[in-house]
Specification:
Layout (H helix, E strand, L loop, with lengths): L1 E6 L18 E8 L9 E10 L7 E8 L6 H12 L4 E4 L6 H11 L10 E4 H5 L3 H4 L6 H8 L12 H12 L2 H21 L4 H7 L3 E11 L5 E10 L8 E5 L2 E6 L2 E7 L1 E8 L6 E4 L4 E4 H4 L8 E2 L6 E11 L7 E2 L8 E4 L2 H4 L2 H17 L2
Parallel strand pairs: 2-5, 5-6
Antiparallel strand pairs: 1-4, 2-3, 3-4, 7-8, 8-11, 9-10, 10-11, 12-16, 13-14, 13-15, 16-18, 17-18
């Protein structure tokens, strides 16, 4: 077995991981195997990136790789990792919940090594970013795809993990230094890539953490049919700096952001909407006025001008200015008709002065965008 250690110099996670873990107690981890199935494949490398805080030296991130130079070294790689990881509490990985962690746990059991991964707190970068693939306009959520999204860095490594399986088998036979270089390089760049793509964890923060609305203003424009339209524009301070400039639109709302600054554009509906009373059995509907009134008041109305309200006719109409909502965030909520799934709330003068309400509304819009597919 070989143990290779390198300093990453100025390279560090492009995300404030202290929001999720304690950096000095954290390992980024990636493994290399000759297949997917534990009993019919070999583990030939475990690589980790960790924060080195050696006294009297500047703190920096380093990599350590335990490399099996033959098939029998597999157990030595596992034991070396176990010994090294004892002082760590967090594991950051890319899709490790699906492959790396179960594979290693099963290998530990195969060799009767007493070690449990559930004693670590795991952070799976893939699992956190994948739900927002549409928002990010990505074709897939492979690590290299996300690396290309967040950084212009070009890998020296040109192999996939699958392509390196035969390379490793050939290395075991001949111990060719060039093949060893390619095997180590692939794992090293996966580790470096994880530090880079950690920046994309700012995307879940858009939907998980509160945003701050710093300014709200009205805007008027003409659509493609030259119809006069209105919208509100919310200037935002985002919870975490974005890794690159982003834009996205859903349900007539548009977001664009760069760094910690963002803007949301939201269409305004100006016109008449209906508020539906829930307890319709206590109301009469007045067909001529096209409105419902409570029975305590309707007793003064001639019986020929009123009828028992139904869920569909138990409403009052109001002409005002409204904003859309996709679940009931603000009440009372309004609709165009009973069966209409679009919900609105009134943009009152009082609401315009409530900054916390707009903070909540901005978060509501992000939740809608995050759920859009």
């Amino acid at each position: 077995m070989k143990c290779i250690q390198k300093s990453l110099g100025i390279l560090s996670p492009k995300y404030p991981i202290e929001n999720l873990c304690i950096p000095r107690q954290t390992l980024f981890i990636d493994i290399e195997t000759t297949g997917l199935y534990v009993h019919s494949s070999n583990l030939y490398m475990i690589g980790c990136a960790y924060l080195d805080e050696t006294p009297d030296k500047p703190a920096c991130w380093r990599t350590i790789q335990w490399f099996a130079t033959n098939y029998e070294d597999e157990i030595h790689v596992l034991n070396a990792f176990v010994t090294f990881s004892k002082t760590y509490r967090y594991l950051i990985h890319f899709n490790g919940n699906q492959f790396d962690i179960p594979y290693l746990q099963n290998k530990m059991q195969q060799y009767n090594i007493p070690f449990r991964f559930d004693e670590f707190e795991g952070i799976d970068i893939y699992r956190r970013i994948a739900p927002y693939k549409t928002f990010l306009k990505l074709p897939d959520c492979k690590q290299k795809t996300i690396e290309n999204f967040v950084t212009a860095t070009v890998r020296e490594d040109q192999f996939t993990g699958g392509e390196l399986i035969d390379v490793y088998h050939e290395y075991v036979l001949h111990h060719d230094e060039e093949k060893e270089h390619f095997l180590l390089l692939h794992n090293e760049e996966d580790l470096k890539g994880m530090l880079e793509i950690a920046a994309a964890l700012a995307i879940p923060d858009l939907f998980r953490l509160p945003v701050t609305v710093t300014r709200v203003q009205a805007n008027y424009y003409k659509d493609v049919n030259q119809k006069q339209c209105s919208e509100i524009i919310m200037n935002l301070k985002l919870p975490t700096a974005l890794p690159t400039e982003l834009s996205y639109g859903a349900n007539g709302c548009y977001f664009n952001g760069c760094g910690i600054d963002g803007k949301l554009r939201v269409p305004v509906y100006e016109g008449e909407l209906k508020y539906f009373y829930s307890n319709y059995k206590e109301y009469y509907y007045l067909p001529k006025e096209d409105t419902a009134i409570h029975k305590s008041v309707a007793s003064f109305v001639d019986k020929t001008y009123r009828k028992q309200a139904t869920a569909r006719t138990c409403y009052t109409r109001k002409i005002s200015t409204y904003l859309p909502q996709w679940e009931v965030l603000f009440t009372p909520f309004f609709k165009r008709d009973y069966d209409d799934k679009d919900l609105f709330f009134e943009l009152t003068d009082e609401l315009k002065t409530q900054r916390e309400a707009f903070n909540a509304y901005a978060h509501h819009i992000f939740e809608m965008m995050g759920a859009s597919r």
